[in-house]
């Protein structure tokens, strides 16, 4: 009985958190400027082209040349930061807001250890994670095990947030897809740099919530085995926005009124149900089950919460079913409480995922 009550408490906490953070009248809802017009059409076309060609995506990806600047160092570790132009296709680059076109990265690495004897994991941002600090705190204890942490600032977040955007509330539906596509492109280039230029022998990709979805996509597209570690993540953005708590903080009236969207060109008045169905259709483009199975599913570890008010269990299990050989680990808690209480479980998944990879042989 106690465990049931605790489960309900965790679930209710997620609802309270969402209400305080998103459902008050203080802020704007998601997608208050509508669908995104031609940007949405561009993204739909690009993503639809991705699925049949995902297995044969060009590799290596766009090469980046990070110029690292040391922020601080101790006897055992060093924190560096750099920025670089996002390596997206030109058409996609022009669709991004100017503030989001420069990627920013933090790199926490052990000192006095050669790269070929280290692993590095790229940490991607969850919804509302505008700084490096949370993810650096998650990765810092792993330095003792010679695991470096690389943190990518998400497009539309932090210093890359458009000037007209309030907090994490993306203005258009197209922004969510642009954020995801740019994150995937940047992450693929960073993994290539870690392996081909920096010489790391093992690499991984992880993220919480939205970052976990992007991590799964990047891991699926990587041409060689990589530890893929989605934490508290759904299989698709449909889940939080059309089925979960975010449906209560979505600007349905703005989407309905957006005359630039193709729905508005049909005969008769557009209904709310049509709008909701269209959003479901658009966001289904983020369905990770449509992506290829990662090269080594054994190195894929999902960490999910038993009483998650944002991500239902069926969503996690759907992705595990699509990727035979992957593992799901459950932690007791909700979406919010698990983030604060289960850092050790996330770190153990990172270590175990990397341990399931073979060390790459150094090039002669």
From TrEMBL:
A molecular function GO annotation: hydrolase activity
Keywords: Hydrolase
Source superkingdom: Eukaryota
Transmembrane segments: none
UniProt xrefs under Gene3D superfamilies: alpha/beta hydrolase
Pfam families: ABHD18
InterPro entries: AB_hydrolase_fold, ABHD18
Record flagged with keyword tRNA-binding: no
Protein name per the record: Alpha/beta hydrolase family protein
Lineage, opening ranks: Eukaryota, Viridiplantae, Streptophyta, Embryophyta, Tracheophyta
């Amino acid at each position: 009985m106690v465990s049931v009550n605790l489960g309900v408490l965790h679930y209710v906490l997620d609802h309270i958190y969402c209400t305080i953070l998103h459902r008050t009248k203080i802020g704007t809802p998601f997608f208050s400027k509508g669908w995104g017009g031609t940007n949405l059409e561009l993204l739909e076309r690009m993503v639809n082209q991705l699925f049949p060609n995902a297995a044969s995506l060009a590799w290596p990806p766009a090469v980046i040349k990070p110029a690292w600047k040391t922020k601080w160092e101790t006897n055992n570790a060093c924190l560096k930061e750099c920025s670089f132009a996002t390596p997206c296709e030109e058409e996609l680059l022009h669709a991004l807001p100017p503030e989001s076109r420069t990627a920013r990265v933090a790199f926490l690495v052990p000192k006095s250890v050669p790269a070929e004897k280290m692993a590095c994991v790229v940490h991607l941002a969850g919804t509302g994670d505008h700084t490096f600090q949370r993810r650096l705190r998650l990765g810092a204890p792993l330095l003792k095990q010679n695991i470096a942490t690389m943190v990518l600032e998400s497009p539309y977040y932090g210093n890359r947030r458009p000037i007209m955007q309030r907090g994490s509330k993306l203005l258009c539906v197209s922004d969510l897809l642009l954020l995801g596509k740019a994150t995937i492109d940047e992450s693929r280039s960073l993994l290539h740099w870690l392996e081909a230029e920096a010489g790391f022998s093992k690499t991984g990709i992880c993220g919480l919530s939205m970052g976990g979805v992007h991590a799964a996509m990047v891991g699926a597209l990587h041409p060689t085995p990589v530890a893929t570690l989605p934490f508290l993540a759904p299989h698709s953005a449909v889940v939080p926005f059309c089925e979960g708590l975010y449906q209560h903080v979505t600007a349905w009236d703005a989407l309905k009124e957006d005359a630039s969207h193709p729905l508005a060109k049909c005969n008769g008045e557009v209904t709310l149900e049509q709008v909701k169905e269209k959003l479901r259709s658009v966001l289904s483009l983020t369905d990770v089950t449509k992506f290829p199975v990662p090269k080594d599913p054994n190195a894929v570890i999902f960490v999910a919460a038993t009483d998650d008010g944002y991500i239902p269990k069926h969503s996690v299990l759907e992705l595990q079913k699509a990727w035979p050989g992957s593992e799901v680990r459950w932690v007791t808690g909700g979406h919010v409480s698990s983030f604060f209480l289960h850092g050790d479980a996330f770190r153990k998944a990172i270590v175990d995922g990397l341990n399931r990879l073979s060390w790459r042989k150094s090039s002669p």
